[in-house]
Amino acid sequence: MEINVINLGPMDNCTYLVTQGTDALLIDPAWDMNFLEHILTEKKLTLRGVLFTHGHFDHVKFAQNLLEKTGLKGYIEASDAELSGINPQFLHTYTGEQTFKIASFDVHIIPTPGHTAGGVCLQIGSALFTGDTLFPGACGRVDLPTSNPRAMRASLVKLAHLPEDTQIFAGHSYGGKCSSTIGYERIKNPFMRNALREEENV
Ligand SMILES: [Zn+2]
């Protein structure tokens, strides 16, 4: 499996093109990606699915266009479907922890509400796409519509208990970095550390 980071837009978004053989998945396509077709042709890839970590515009903006064109469905947690503004006919909505088989990929969904009600992390192999739940050294904002600070703490605790060599790929490269490991964040991320401390004291 290969993970290509595409850094785009004025908000340092990280879109990911995940490939395996000739299959490709796209995660959080937001900004102008008209060059995508060129990448797919050049690398002889077939796009098999589009997945969203949550419904904020800076993670979904390019998708409607792409889904219309390709006939693929965009996978989004049901609570964030409306927020995405994408026509529901192009969406596959779901709730709860589960695994989707999309072409040769097994995509495991870990619900991680807090930043938004329908925020999820996507686990593919040992890679975890964390959207705006977990960033290297930080976590997503919890002062937005449908945010919930208590849910965010529980989500950070859930992620902290994943294997420490799990590699994370965040939704933004704030500070120039979009990837890290759970093991590193457990020690260095003040938000994850606080969440774990609170869990121990309950
Ligand atoms: Zn967001």
Describe this structure as you would to a colleague.
The protein is built from 7 helices and 14 strands. A hairpin with an 8-residue loop joins strand 8 and strand 9. It starts with a strand and ends with a helix. Helix 5 crosses helix 7. Helices cover 27% and strands 33% of the residues. The protein has a single domain, classed as Ribonuclease Z/Hydroxyacylglutathione hydrolase-like (Metallo-beta-lactamase, Chain A, 4-Layer Sandwich). The chain is α/β, with parallel strands linked by helices. The protein is globular. Zinc ion binds next to loops.
Quick structural gist:
The protein is of the alpha/beta class and 202 residues long. Helices cover 27% and strands 33% of the residues.
List the domain count as a whole number: 1
Q: Give the CATH topology.
A: Metallo-beta-lactamase, Chain A
Bound molecules: zinc ion
Biggest sheet strand order reads 1-2-3-4-5-6
CATH architecture name: 4-Layer Sandwich
SSE string, helix = H, strand = E?
Answer: EEEHEHHEHEEEEEEEHEEHH
- Mean pLDDT, rounded to whole units? 95
Helix fraction, binned, reads 25-40%
Rg to the nearest angstrom? 16 Å
Label the structural class.
alpha/beta
The fraction of residues assigned to DSSP E strands is 25-35%
**Quick one: how many beta strands?**
14
**What's the CATH H-level superfamily name?**
Ribonuclease Z/Hydroxyacylglutathione hydrolase-like
Distance between the termini: 40 Å
Total count of helical runs of at least 4 residues = 7
The biggest beta sheet reads:
6 strands, mixed
Attribute tags:
202 residues; alpha/beta; Metallo-beta-lactamase, Chain A; six-stranded mixed β-sheet; globular
